[in-house]
Amino acid sequence: MKILVGYNGGEVGRISLSLARDMAGIHSAFVYVVTSMEGGASETQAEIAQAEEGLEFARQLLENSGIQCEAQQSVRGLSAGEDLVKFAEENDIDHIFLGIKKTSRAQKAILGSTARYVILKAPCPVTTVRFEINTILPEDLLKDRKILVVDDEPDILETIEELLDMCTLETANSFETAKKLLENNKYDLAILDIMGVSGYDILKLAGEKEVPALMLTAHALTPENLKESIQKGADSYIPKDELANISTHAADVIRTRIEGKQGYGSWFSTLKPFFDKSFGKGWRDKDRSFWNTFDDKYGK
User: Fold this and answer.
1) What span, in angstroms and rounded, lies between the C-alpha atoms of 204 and 256?
2) Where are the chain's structural domains?
């Protein structure tokens, strides 16, 4: 069996790849991942480089799952729909996965026409995929995400591995190990302890790499550390009492980053009652200026 993924990156591309990977695993299929580009002056060098980077991500995702694959740009001067159908005919494709992005009206029209063309002209079944940020379940949003977890407690690392089994996890129990991993790999999220692993130093490195960071702590559970985490760019600050809900909190960080709203997640409003109980009545009064600014920016 041969599967074709019409791939153009983004969240909908990630879902298309996951579905194709799952089908390929069941049927021992070969997967072609194709990014169609018209060529000439239609694409900039930056767009071409971005497409190649996306194809490398797709290649790694499939190969890490044991799926035979080929990922390539196709530049033939054809529209995306014509190109994908022609590729399917030339390679005896048995099934096509095609993502449909919904952003601006113009993109809806263009991508919609591509999907319609492929559905009508393809020589095989076509599965179209949408990404709906407001309705996707946490476990689906986290599926196949690459996450770095840094903690000096082995039982915490083991627990997170079990709770986030839908993700690809890499773990570190020291600052030095985490630093090397961040320097050599790309991650969708970093989950960082504070005490014992120089968590704030790792947070700085994650910020430089544009990796969202969730601070997960027990010993550093204080108003001062909560404030410092926010000031230093953490996407959320979660007490280890909430470890059982780590998938919900991790998905919240991913969701808000996709929406372009770093720090706007629901974590603070969800955990404020916990903070009130842990820190005592009026704990924010000691630094009212900071928290008034926080409320104005993120909402109470």
Assistant:
1) 20
2) 2-130, 138-298
